[in-house]
Design a protein that fits this description.
about 500 residues; alpha+beta; five-stranded antiparallel beta sheet; globular
Length: about 500
């Protein structure tokens, strides 16, 4: 640690570091706030072993930050010093950065007026417009050229918003650091991590990655999408997953999203929650910083774009892009119900405002967002989620592709498809797959009921604040028992449910 402190003091021209405060230690990084003898402040970040591949993760994060600051002029803390190799005086990879000024959006969001929140959304949409209009010629992560053992190329790095080819003597696209290629044990697999020349090579690598995961017996360890594996529920198997993936590989080149613009390889912040956005304390409607660009890679737009996380809420998404209304029976509601209705109204209004701003300033991003429900976009995304037991949904899409194959590939003069359909499902296959879809949907509904019973939420990892631990554990215990009393028909089924419910200890207790 002393060497790190000496480096930190040196890069800002101070004599020594006098105060060390650990800001956080998460799954991927340790972060320290360092104060020097003259009051100057920096942040030191050291990756944990699970952060990603040694050298590559840190080297790419630094290059991405510098590119975003230097080329795209994003408000991101400056990197003062870094090393992506552990064979240095510190003995570990590290990054020393400027301390992000301002306050987190999470600290002021609830106090902002409607116009101030609208201003925040306008700025976020503008940042997204810049990202979406910077189209890289390969798929992978961004690096300094000297950090990659690859020959120099004479092709452009990206195409800018004006359609100009941009060459770079500084940056290059290399292997991805996307979490989907490393989490849940994937980092130990010998799989293709790019870079990839085009979307078809990328999608093929994703499907083959999931096949390798299944063959290695890897499991999804977070909150499951549905309560599968339990009594009378959908029973996922490796064979079902492999069958769906192999069938997908037969047709994937023909069923890419029809809008080629959403195929473009772009950088994107996939976790833009309110603690990753900093605003000016004197004018909290002005964004002055965005942090946490670790693992960001250049990938197809449609596979990355989502509503910014700080707009997430529990409740229905408006069906139309227009003015949101309070419930017609609002005046007859209790005070508590009115408060909930107002909160939902405000969240839905911001959701629609984000989409309205996006469709005006960034129509391609809007098209990618709206395309999430289209078969071609879904069938290109689901293969990368096989560990979440979504193969019944993929099989349904594949059957739909088979049924509409002539419209996909076109019809020859003899009335036959220009390309014979490589998919073939027997009557028994179809019957089993349709039953699997029904059970899968049933499992998702059961999960929603379990969430209500326990006070949990979708995709929760089980992490709570220390002050909330006892209450959360009690809610989980009571909710689990309510669920078991309702769903288990006998003691045998009760024991079977306890083996598959999330957050159950080895003694059978939550």
């Amino acid at each position: 640690m002393s060497e790190l402190l000496n480096i930190a003091a040196g890069v800002v021209g101070s004599d020594s570091c006098t105060t060390i405060l650990k800001v956080s230690e998460g799954h991927y990084n340790k972060v320290f706030h360092l104060t020097m003898n003259d009051g100057r402040e920096v942040v030191a970040k050291l990756p944990n072993p699970k952060a990603g591949r040694p050298h590559f993760m840190m080297a790419s994060e630094v290059a991405t930050i510098v590119f975003l600051r230097k080329v795209l002029h994003f408000p991101i803390p400056k990197v003062y010093a870094w090393s992506s190799r552990s064979d240095n005086p510190v003995g570990a990879e590290y990054m020393i950065m400027e301390k992000q000024p301002g306050v987190m959006l999470s600290d002021v969001w609830t106090t902002l007026k409607g116009k101030q929140k609208a201003s925040i959304l306008q700025q976020v949409v503008e940042f997204e417009r810049i990202l979406a209009s910077t189209k890289f010629t390969k798929i992978g992560a961004l690096y300094y050229k000297e950090d990659l053992l690859t020959p120099k190329r004479n092709s452009p790095l990206y195409v800018d918003g004006s359609g100009n080819d941009v060459y770079s003597s500084e940056f290059e696209i290399g292997p991805t650091n996307h979490r989907s290629f490393f989490d849940f044990g994937k980092g130990d697999l010998d799989i293709d991590r790019g870079p990839w020349p085009n979307i078809t090579a990328y999608l093929e690598a994703i499907a083959n990655r999931e096949i390798a995961c299944i063959n290695a017996g890897l499991k999804y360890t977070l909150f499951p999408e549905g309560l599968f594996y339990g009594p009378r529920q959908y029973q996922p198997t490796a064979a079902k997953k492999l069958s769906a993936l192999n069938n997908y590989l037969k047709v994937f080149k023909y069923v890419l999203p029809e809008n080629n613009a959403v195929h473009e390889s772009v950088l994107w912040h996939g976790d833009l929650h309110s603690q990753n956005i900093f605003v000016d304390p004197e004018d909290p409607s002005r964004i002055i910083g965005m942090i946490d660009w670790q693992s960001v890679s250049a990938c197809p737009l449609f596979m990355q774009v989502t509503r910014p996380a700080f707009l997430d809420y529990n409740g229905p998404i408006p069906k139309e892009l227009g003015r949101v209304s309070l419930p017609p029976n609002f005046d007859s509601m209790s005070a508590e119900e009115q408060a909930e209705a107002k909160a939902l109204y405000q969240s839905q209004t911001l959701h629609n405002l984000y989409l309205a701003l996006t469709v005006r300033s960034n129509p391609t991003t809007f098209q990618a967002l709206q395309g999430h429900s289209t078969p071609h976009q879904q069938v290109s995304i689901l293969p990368g989620l096989m560990l979440t037991d979504c193969e019944p949904c993929l099989n349904s899409l594949l059957r739909e592709i088979k049924d509409t194959w002539p419209t996909i590939v076109g019809v020859a003069a003899d009335g036959k498809p220009r390309v014979p359909c490589p998919l073939d499902f027997s009557a028994a296959d179809v019957e089993q797959q349709e039953r699997d879809v029904e059970l899968w949907a049933q499992g998702v509904e059961l999960m929603n009921e379990f969430i209500k019973d326990t006070g949990a939420f979708k995709h929760w990892g089980g992490r709570v604040e220390p002050a909330d631990y006892d209450l959360s554990k009690q809610q989980l215990f009571e909710g689990t028992n309510r669920f078991l009393d309702r769903e288990a028909k006998n003691e045998e089924e009760r024991a079977a449910w306890l083996r598959v419910l999330p957050f159950i200890d080895s003694d059978g207790r939550p």
